Amino acid sequence: AIKMLQLKYRVTCFYSKIQLIKI
User: Which superkingdom (predicted)?
Assistant: First the structure.
């Protein structure tokens, strides 16, 4: 369960970075 949460957090951070770059 913890690993799943960490993965989700990483994906969210990654997505945020991409969004920032796109903008």
Answer: Eukaryota
